[in-house]
Design brief:
hypothetical protein PF0899 fold, three-stranded mixed β-sheet, 3 helices, about 30% helix, binds zinc ion
């Protein structure tokens, strides 16, 4: 169920930054997900659909990009990419690895509609 709390935070962040840009609607959220995080974009999408109802993110689409797992081998000192299910140096098979990337989770970018009528935006909440 950890996708649920992730999606809650994600939605909060997206709405906050969309408001800062005076966006009236969030259309697409581009995510970067490290392969070691084990996050399934389809789950995020399902939770987002539930949580975003009635917000400016309602109907937003998740576009996810997986980031490779990169390691530095402490034995042969080479960098390499490994698959999450095979944690060994691709060069010398050593298990003494330093993780360089693969646990990321962040918003790469968003596609939003900007409300052209800036004067109505400043009327909100300032009085
Ligand atoms: Zn190695």
């Amino acid at each position: 169920m950890h996708e649920l709390s992730i999606t809650e935070h994600l939605l909060e962040d997206c709405i906050k930054s969309a408001r800062e840009k005076n966006a009236s609607k969030i259309r697409v959220i581009h995510l970067c997900i490290g392969q070691l995080r084990g996050i399934i974009p389809d789950c995020i999408q399902i939770y987002l659909d539930m949580l975003s109802e009635g917000t400016i993110a309602e109907g937003a689409r998740i576009e996810a990009e997986y980031l490779p797992v990169k390691v530095l081998c402490r034995d042969c000192k080479k960098e390499g990419e490994i698959s999450p299910g095979h944690l060994a140096c691709p060069h010398c098979k050593s298990l003494k690895l330093k993780l360089l990337s693969g646990k990321e989770f962040y918003i790469k970018s968003m596609e939003v509609d900007i409300d052209g009528n800036q004067s109505t935006a400043s009327d909100n909440g300032l009085e």
